[in-house]
From TrEMBL:
It comes from Rheinheimera soli. Signal peptide: none annotated. It comes from the Bacteria. Residues 124-326 form the Peptidase M28 domain. This is Zn-dependent M28 family amino/carboxypeptidase.
Amino acid sequence: MKLFRIPLWLWLLLIVAGLGYAFHPYLLEQLNQLEQKRLLSQPLPQVSEMPQRLDFQRQMADLTYLASEELAGRGTGQPGGLKAQQWLVTQFTAIGLATAGTEGYLQPYQPTSGKAQLMKGAANVLGRIEGSDPALPLLVLTAHYDHLGLHQGKIYYGADDNASGVAALLAIARYFKQHPPRHPVLFAALDNEESGMWGARMLFEQELLKPEQIKLNINMDMLSHDTNKQLIAVGSYHYPQLGQPLLQLQQQSSVRLLLGYDRPAWRVGTHQDWTLSSDHREFHKRQVPFVYFGVPDHAHYHQPTDTIDNVDQEFYREVSETVLDAVLLFDAS
């Protein structure tokens, strides 16, 4: 009786596959380390101090209120979240933004799947500045105002995530109200980011926005924790045309701006990819260019300790001015 023989080429294939499987974690970690080296090889800041163009005292007051016990973590549909929503309407009114929602500044909506469908009272808060050339495509500035709210008797204050982004959004809106941009700009304080980016999604599903009308989304999510003075700018891997303005931004910022966190695993192994991690996801899904500004993860992320006491105020000021510079660069291009 003849024994079944496995061909030599199949033995070799099995051996190679086995070695590949065994070394796969090692290879991923090597790619991760190479990506980290690429990030840290980017230019160091050339500027010692950012200009003072934003009203930072007012901005800190806004952040302090958004992260206060009164708003109790701004959970979507919770009393604190609804109070934050109405407070944002009063701020947009005071700034003098044009209404851009379906009901004045508000865009109410009801999520239809996942845990978000149990949350009532969700709404985006939307205001607009037309710009000196309204025929130009739209710049959309986004920051989510919701956080985890009250959970098991604890308040998740969400000072960095994302009261910091919303307070910066308001400060930048005040600046552009006094210094009109070329492009029309939509200022969008979004709801439901923490439960599936529903606020960003509903901008498109309710057709308040059409992808072909948008030049760029600039998303701000976590700006106020100093982690080795680093700020991440995500998006230029997917949209290379953004690279040159962001390289220029590196040269005029006092914080270390790193372009990355947007490359797939086959290039960076286990390194984080934030392409789909916040509201910019819904723009990217529709092939709208985006830049997402955020700080690296820190110990207070999604913890009750994400409070105003842990905000690094000078770093936050520098980051906010850097984001303003980004908007000015893209508005000029």
